[in-house]
Amino acid sequence: MCGTCFAVPSTHNYLLTHCLPSFVKSPEDQTGISGGVASFVCQATGEPKPRITWMKKGKKVSSQRFEVIEFDDGSGSVLRIQPLRTHRDEAIYECTATNSAGEINTSAKLTVLEENQIPHGFPTIDMGPQLKVVEKTRTATMLCAASGNPDPEISWFKDMLPVDISSSNGRIKQLRSGALQIENSEESDQGKYECVAMNSAGTRYSAPANLYVRVRRVPPRFSIPPTNQEVMPGGSVNLTCVAVGSPMPYVKWTMGQTELTKEEEMPMGRNVLEVTNIRESANYTCVAISSLGMIEATAQVTVKALPKPPTSLIVTETTATSVTLTWDSGNPEPVSYYMIQYRAKSSDNGFQEVEGVATTRYSIGGLSPYSEYEFRVMAVNNIGRGPPSDPVETRTGEQAPSSPPLHVQARMLSASTMLVQWGPPEEPNGQIRGYRVYYSSDLTAPLSAWQKHNTDDSSLTTISGLTPDITYSLRVLGFTSVGDGPPSDILQVKTQQGVPAQPSSFEAEAELDTRIVLTWLWPVQDPITKYELQFWEAGSENKIHRTFNPAGSYAVEGLKPDTLYRFSLAARSEMGLGVYTQPIEARTAQSTPSAPPQEVHLVSLSSTSLKVSWVAPPAASRHGAIVRYSISYQALAGEDMERLEVTGIGAEATSYVLDGLDKWTEYQVWVRAHTDVGPGPESAPVKMRTKEDGRLTPPLKQSALKLFQPLFLEAVCHYFPSPSSACITQFSLSF
Prior knowledge:
Distance between the termini: 131 Å
Number of helices: 1
Low-confidence stretches: 700-724
CATH topology of the largest domain: Immunoglobulin-like
Shape: elongated
Number of domains: 8
Mean pLDDT: 89
CATH superfamily of the largest domain: Immunoglobulins
Helix content: under 10%
Structural class: mainly beta
């Protein structure tokens, strides 16, 4: 509390309050020991803050043994005298507190005793503090024990200033033993500590001991670094960053040059950044700072969106069947893969797709030669497929034709001149530059030995100089700049004017199990009067002849199902019969078997099972491949006489065991075979009884009537047999 106060006018026309000094703590009389220590404490308040000076015998103290230690808050000082000297240091020491309001004084007496003058009961330090090293935040205890009469009071000095226990908020305590306990130690607790024992006989100081507070020095590091995040457009995310070290680092967030954490709000150790309404991808940097350094870690927040279309799509290479494409990603963010779509421009079908392309260069194969194609590329990420790139078109390279000319026909203009005509190949694989017509009177000679007639890209030509009244074989092929295509099928022509040429494009197709339809191309301008057909079963020499009026098709009826037939056709005119075609083949459709499985037999295996065996229907009656068998069976007596069926028996099976049947019961069984078309007829029923069980149950009901007569005992029994799965031949009675 301040002393007397009064107002003083200032130069700025307002009043200043001045208060006389007032002592907060005054020095106290002390009795010390020669060679020991004495400390006088003096603290004062006032306005303005007073200045403390020390006087001895009216003079300001000045000696190497005298030291004045100021309090940190400027409230006063301690006069410390060490070592004490008898007589020389004994005096009245005066503390003066002075400010502009006035001056006050207080004093204390110091007495110094020699060792031989120390009275009984003078304080003795039994155990003084020792050098101690403690980890920061740990508890440090400085020990002190003293004795005397009366028991001395113990106080503590740190760095020659009294320890103020009351201002430590309970962190610093003095124990009953006198020891000083410092909890949650700080760097400021480090220093030189002295234990002071005082009673009415005098004051004794312990030897000083240093307390060192060790601070671990660990540079900052991230225990939980920020992680990359993906969010939908407009989404939010929390970025967590945790850093540790000693001292504990401060943690802040930045985005580029922008500070996202205010300096005054920078937390220690952990910082969670909440980012909302995210529209663009960005990098966020976590910065950890301590006196030992600064570290950074960056997290990328990516906004999920469909990828942009790839750019700069070009064709870098083409062959007859492949195209190589290259393109730029067109996306700043990585994509999962690319998808290529392509289609032939001449086709009405949609795009074909190639998925999972990991690079920006890809070759697509399996294309048709000399064809216009359209290509486009799309990028795919974990959201989905982006829009397509701008399309690019190209034509594949040429190749030799892969199919022969179509509808090759010929007729004689005279006995030595032939007119041949055809249609372009179905698969030209390029621009047809011309055709080659091969012809020969020797069908068995290799094509290279046949005569050759070249023509341009027209679809007909004439061949002259032929030998009259013989048969020529004829084949036509087309060629591109790359090479020759395959030749057409052989067409045979008689060099006899007016005789029809061999029908061309002769084909056969099965429509039913007993019907095959034949089609051909009508010979050019030939006056056909009839067609003559030969057909026969493959493997048979028995040819059947049919003659019918001119037409472009003919249905052959009454054939056997699932049978391979061969057909050959010739045209007839008034001038004679033309050349028969080379035989073509067709198989009639399958039908259901017309005969049942053969040799069906039953064997009784037990009282509940029968074995069924059979042989497949005759080959001529199968009318297709047998794919499975089925068995039907029915009890001829008993409670359950329902007809049952077993299906799905394998085509290779020739027997099957029926289980779970009734005991000593007669059954009838049917077997049938199936093709893919359906089942054939059932076999005739075969009958068989399951075996006897051999295990009988006792009669259901028994009764006895006793008849008593004087001379003998007789019993009459009645019994009713139980239901049995065997034939009962006798009963046995025990009594």
